[in-house]
């Protein structure tokens, strides 16, 4: 039975906070929780296990120490897949640096994860050939893939040879035979790059076939080494008879103690360590003479734990540390690799990205959305959008060549791309949270793709207790959220409809107070894509080519103004407006005439705010309205074009097309700088020959701008 990713959502139901213990000599920490299903003096087995290390080798020298200290004469050392992809160690060495340490440690087996196929069958074949242990997967057919035909065997490995792929194997441990089955997520077909020749089969059927084969061979102690994800492991335990232990991966789930399925019968234990080599898993089990688990104790040994003095509680193995230093030398040169090119500066400055739309935020969000759209196919989803927290954008990227080092500086956290299925109402709630810390420069401020939204920072923000997570004050800032249609138009978000939201793993787990996203995850509406963010961005750069992106009006702070008509408001509809703050102003009649002509607009609270300073971008819009100037071609290539707001781009292009911006010297437009009266007068003289007023070199107010324009008309 073939599974389609759109119909299979994988959810990690556990906290990402590790409360692990260590049993290594001299290490602090309490022992893990133990479960018992009766007493026995049968066969005792220790399983040490890792999963989803993703080329995070910084802890590997401590892993060597931990494994060597915990290993006894009845130990299996297993890896549950996804050694590939995640850091520059993989970019440089294609998994062979990781493999060196796995060979050094003497792993007994590894299941193939989806990321093992990221560079295609040939790169995987190089890894397999050099492995000094067998690799497993019972639900993958390699028979028609030339690169892996010789390295794969469809029979159970009895015994299994190093550097070969088997569906399952029998390993003799301290005189006892243990069966180990490998299972890989069928979603690999769309999550990675296995090519057309490798076929994936249903994991439940494949597992049961191997269990039955083991039982016919008299093998009663059976382990499933899986890269399926926590929820799929639970389902496997419930549906496949005869499994004693599931050593899992793929969902990056932290299990501080084993999950026990049907404990009142013949128990099946499920273990997983989390991610990125942060923990070494240890499971001690006892089997009775019938091969049934009768006692167990599982725990996680933290590899990056420090004592009060700041020293690691597990020392690095000196030889492993020396070898890692050798591997690390090449990475500095790798950071210089050019991965893209930009014709504009990409704005990731903290003071910009945490309070407004930026072109770098747009570029990143577009790449995330594009990748999710290529993978997640959900017929129930009305559209695809991105919400990326700005705290994950740490630096700008200058115009010119974009290097791998730039990417790692801009997004240094190695967050994974994740997709959530959320209602429109939940998306609005997420955006409300996102704009509620804008005054403080909070990292939760959202950069978006596939939608635009309007908010008002003068209104009440949402307030959440950071300790309890309870909402103390409801936010009232989001005024409108609209979804991008295929034809480029926008439609109001449907609060009851489902949308696919591209985000990162941190936000999906409720980071930066994104509670509506965490709720979607906990409800099981999560797609675990586990694609590292800088690689997604790099792929998008390949697709885009020379980057020329600008801001597009995806995020608008109304600042107390009325919601514009295109967003569902009635700004600009005057019907004879009377602005309450200028009722006694001598210029009232002229200002009202300008408002009725659609040249100037008031604010939502009925005020005009005559003394508010006008920016250069705002004045360009007023001029284009007053003289009915339409865009005719693209605007000049201003050096700061990426700073021009989307709502002003057509107006500035119209002025430039009419040759009027030649009156303003310089190649920078400076859209958000205050307009001066002298600059306004210069521009108006260029438009109207009869206009001969000379303005002062001081900032232009809204009232003064209207009077100058009306006089020119």
Automatic annotation (TrEMBL):
Q: Name the InterPro entries for this protein.
A: 5'-Nucleotdase_C (IPR008334), 5'-Nucleotdase_C_sf (IPR036907), 5'-Nucleotdase_CS (IPR006146), 5_nucleotidase/apyrase (IPR006179), Calcineurin-like_PHP (IPR004843), Metallo-depent_PP-like (IPR029052), SLH_dom (IPR001119)
User: Keyword annotations for this protein?
Assistant: Hydrolase, Nucleotide-binding, Signal
- Residue span(s) of domain SLH: 574-637, 638-698
Superkingdom as given in the UniProt entry: Bacteria
What are the recorded Gene Ontology BP terms?
nucleotide catabolic process
For this chain, the family text in UniProt reads:
Belongs to the 5'-nucleotidase family.
Q: What is this protein called?
A: 5'-Nucleotidase domain-containing protein
Query: Which species does the entry assign this protein to?
Result: Paenibacillus algicola
Upper lineage is: Bacteria, Bacillati, Bacillota, Bacilli, Bacillales
């Amino acid at each position: 039975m073939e599974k389609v990713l759109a119909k299979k959502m994988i959810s990690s139901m556990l906290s990402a906070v590790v409360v692990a213990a260590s049993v290594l000599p001299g290490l602090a920490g309490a022992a893990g929780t133990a479960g018992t299903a009766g007493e026995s003096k049968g066969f005792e087995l220790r399983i040490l296990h890792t999963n989803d290390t993703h080329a995070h080798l910084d802890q590997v020298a401590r892993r060597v120490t931990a494994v060597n200290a915990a290993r006894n004469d009845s130990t299996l050392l297993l890896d549950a897949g996804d050694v590939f992809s995640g850091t520059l160690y993989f970019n440089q060495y294609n998994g062979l640096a990781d493999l060196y340490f796995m060979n050094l440690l003497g792993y007994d087996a590894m299941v193939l994860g989806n990321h093992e196929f990221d560079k295609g069958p040939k790169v995987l074949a190089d890894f397999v050939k050099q492995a000094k242990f067998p690799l497993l997967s019972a639900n993958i057919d390699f028979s028609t893939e030339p690169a892996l035909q010789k390295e794969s065997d469809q029979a159970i490995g009895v015994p299994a040879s190093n550097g070969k792929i088997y569906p399952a194997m029998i390993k003799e441990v301290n005189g006892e035979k243990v069966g180990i089955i490998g299972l890989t997520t069928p979603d690999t077909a769309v999550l990675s790059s296995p090519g057309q020749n490798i076929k994936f089969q249903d994991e439940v059927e494949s597992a049961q076939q191997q269990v039955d084969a083991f039982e016919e061979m008299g093998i009663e102690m059976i382990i499933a080494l899986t890269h399926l994800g926590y929820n799929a492991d639970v389902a496997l335990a419930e549906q496949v008879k005869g499994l004693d232990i599931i050593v899992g991966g793929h969902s990056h789930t932290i299990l501080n103690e084993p999950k026990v399925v049907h404990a009142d019968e013949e128990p099946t234990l499920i273990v997983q360590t989390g991610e990125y080599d942060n923990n070494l898993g240890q499971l001690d089990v006892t089997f009775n003479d019938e091969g049934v688990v009768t006692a167990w104790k599982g725990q996680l040994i933290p590899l990056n734990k420090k004592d009060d003095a700041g020293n690691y509680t597990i020392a690095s193995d000196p030889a492993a540390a020396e070898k890692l230093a050798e591997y690390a030398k090449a990475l500095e040169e790798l950071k210089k690799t050019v991965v893209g090119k930009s014709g504009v500066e990409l704005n990731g400055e903290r003071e910009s990205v945490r309070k407004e739309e930026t072109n770098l935020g747009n570029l990143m969000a577009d790449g995330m959305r594009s990748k999710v759209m290529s993978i997640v196919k959900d017929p129930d989803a009305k559209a695809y959008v991105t919400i990326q927290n700005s705290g994950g954008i740490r630096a700008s990227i200058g115009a010119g060549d974009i290097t791998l080092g730039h990417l790692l500086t801009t997004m240094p956290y190695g967050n994974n791309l994740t997709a959530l299925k959320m209602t429109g109402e939940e998306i609005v709630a997420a955006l409300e949270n996102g704009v509620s810390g804008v005054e403080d420069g909070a990292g939760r401020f959202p950069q978006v793709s596939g939608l635009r939204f309007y908010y008002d920072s003068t209104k009440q923000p949402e307030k959440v207790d950071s300790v309890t997570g309870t909402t103390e004050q409801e936010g009232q800032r989001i005024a409108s959220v609209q979804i991008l249609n295929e034809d480029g138009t926008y439609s109001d978000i449907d609060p009851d409809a489902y949308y696919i939201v591209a985000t990162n793993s941190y936000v999906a787990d409720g980071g930066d107070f994104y509670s509506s996203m965490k709720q979607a995850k906990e409800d099981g509406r999560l797609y675990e894509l586990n694609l590292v963010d800088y690689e997604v961005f790099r792929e998008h750069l390949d697709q885009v080519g020379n980057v020329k992106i600008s801001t597009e009006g995806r995020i608008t702070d109304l600042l107390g103004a009325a919601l514009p008509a295109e967003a569902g408001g009635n700004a600009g509809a005057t019907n004879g407006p009377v602005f309450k703050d200028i009722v006694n102003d001598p210029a009232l009649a002229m200002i009202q005439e300008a408002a009725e002509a659609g040249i100037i607009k008031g604010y939502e609270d009925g005020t005009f705010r005559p003394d508010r300073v006008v920016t250069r971008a705002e004045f360009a819009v007023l001029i284009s309205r007053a003289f009915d100037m339409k865009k005719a071609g693209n605007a000049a290539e201003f050096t700061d074009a990426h700073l021009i707001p989307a709502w002003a781009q057509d107006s500035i292009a119209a002025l430039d097309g009419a040759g009027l911006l030649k009156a303003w010297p310089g190649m920078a437009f400076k859209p958000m700088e205050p307009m001066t009266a002298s600059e306004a007068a210069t521009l108006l003289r260029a438009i109207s020959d009869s206009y001969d007023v000379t303005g002062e070199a001081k900032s232009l107010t809204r009232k003064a701008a209207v009077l100058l324009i009306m006089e020119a008309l």
